[in-house]
Amino acid sequence: MLSYILKKIHHSFWTLLGVVTTIFFLFNVLPGDPAQMMLGQNEDQTQLAIVKQKYGFDQPVLTQYLYYLNDLSPLSFHSNDSDDYTFLESHSYSYQPLFKTAKNTVVFKFPYLRTSFTKQGKEVSQILKETLPNTIILAVASIFVALTLGLFLGVISALYKDHWVDKTILVVSTFGMSLPSFFSAILAAWIFGFLLHHYTGLEMTGSLYELDDFGEVYQLKLKNLILPAMVLGIRPLAVVTQLMRNSLLEVFNQDYIRTARAKGLSEFKIILHHAMKNALNPVVTAISGWFASLLAGAVFVEYIFSWNGLGKEIVNALNTLDLPVIMGAVLIIALTFVLINILVDVIYTYLDPKIKLNP
Questions:
Q1: What is the biggest distance separating any 2 CA atoms in the chain, rounded to whole angstroms?
Q2: What does the alpha-carbon distance between residue 288 and residue 347 come to, in Å, rounded to a whole number?
Q3: What does the angle CA 53 – CA 129 – CA 90 come to, to the nearest 5 degrees?
Q4: Left if phi > 0, otherwise alpha if psi is -120 to 50, otherwise beta: which for 111?
Q5: d(CA 155, CA 243)
Q6: CA nearest 141: which of 222, 29, 205?
Q7: For 275, which DSSP code?
Q8: Which of 51, 129, 131, 156 has the highest count of CB atoms within 10 angstroms of its CB?
Q9: pLDDT digit string, tens, across residues 208-235
């Protein structure tokens, strides 16, 4: 198991390096001067020159790419020359020095995602720290809705195969898969947050924490989670329902299920103790992919409901061409995909002992 995980981590490293390389060169071919983006309307030639030197924008693109890798790497090399971008004193992050030479210092640190162009020098890591938890909470809530309802509806649909109940569930789930998130978000906000507000008590917009009426203290508003979680969970719910139905129907034809029925076990015990475990493999695959996708796909839902998460922050960064924030967010999403894929492979061995992890 350990050797397999180490192999996956090795492959993941090259995957993340490819993502970093792609997003760096993609955003660096965009028109516009990063130094001017940082200074806004207050720039002059002297200030532009200072900013370009400070952040390495006056260097060739390849050199800037190496600077970016050096910032991201936990083991980084820093020049002792105060005019160099990698000069250690010009970086505000905490570090642990390893050794020092006449020209360079090698340190150990957390990956540095640089600072925002538009938020008065605020570090990207701090922005992500403030917004990512809200998106994770929203994604977990959406997956919970999809799993609980999807597994239940999938089992019901399999038990009543070709019955009107089964056909109704299939039609509704197909409709749910084809419904765009931005449209369902607008529809849900209008119906439950506006038309039925008197009965539901739900708002059209709102985040997990909001300022009180005096604008002094942030208060927890769990009810604001309901609509975004339901909307974001519609498509994975439809996928889980159909996957669970089809997987259960396939498992029902296995010999061990026939044996369990011949022994007189109840249908409930057969499903719960025998069929469910083996039928969950395709569901786990789908949910793992959906969870990572929800971090990226929550953009429209968060923006429509004004949910202060990573998706809304990405939209704001795109509107202002805040490249460090965009690149940091994309990198975090890619890292999430990688970690979830490793976790799912490990879960497979528990759900189906016949699956072997080849190191």
A1: 86
A2: 11
A3: 25
A4: beta
A5: 10
A6: 222
A7: I
A8: 131
A9: 888 776 666 788 888 999 999 999 988 8
Q: Where are the alpha helices (DSSP H) in 29-107?
A: 34-39, 45-55, 61-72
Answer left, alpha or beta for residue 123, where phi above 0 means left and psi between -120 and 50 means alpha.
Answer: beta
99 bridge partner residues: 106
**Is the model more confident about 249 or about 275?**
249
* Partners of 115 in the β-ladder: 123
CA–CA gap between residue 54 and residue 58 (Å, rounded): 9
Q: Record the tokens describing residue 20, joined without a space.
A: 């970093």
Over residues 74-107, the pLDDT tens digits come to 999 888 888 788 887 777 788 888 888 888 889 9
Spans of all domains in the chain: 124-351
Q: Contacts by 118-123 with C-beta closer than 8 Å and gap 24+?
A: 118/37, 118/38, 118/40, 118/317, 118/320, 118/322, 119/322, 123/92, 123/93
CA dist 234 and 159 (Å) reads 22
Query: What pLDDT band is residue 60 in, cutting at 50, 70 and 90?
Result: confident
Q: Are 171 and 179 in contact (CB under 8 A)?
A: no
Is residue 119 within 8 Å of residue 127, measured between CB atoms?
yes
CA pair distance 289, 236, nearest whole angstrom: 10
CA atoms within 13 A on the CB side of 285: 10
pTM of the model: 0.81
In this structure, what are the phi and psi dihedrals at residue 98, rounded to the nearest 5 degrees? -100, -55
CATH number for region 124-351: 1.10.3720.10
Are residues 52 and 58 in contact, defined by beta-carbon separation less than 8 angstroms? yes
